[in-house]
Model the fold of this input.
Amino acid sequence: MDESSLPVVPAPIVAPGPAPSATTPRVPFHCSECGKSFRYRSDLRRHFARHTALKPHACPRCGKGFKHSFNLANHLRSHTGERPYRCSACPKGFRDSTGLLHHQHELQGRPAE
Done:
């Protein structure tokens, strides 16, 4: 077979770019319990709460403790009756976005994810 009968396949074009080490994100903070790595110290602190029984955010009304302040904020709505997440299809309101999301899936006749 001579070279003129072989199919011509163009060579892939490789764009120059940074060295692989420059594109690899730095993750300098590591969990001493499970080894998971984090880019920011604040993310490591939040994660580390999973490994402890500490619940530093206490409800001033009932004393229930929470690991994260956002969980306390949602819980406080159970005492105040606040339901800031409103359904656009009906008059129902929900304490958190997850409740609204489940409701919207029910309205559409499909299970929530």
In short: The helical segments are 20-23, 41-48, 69-80, 97-107. The chain is about 30% helix and 10% strand.
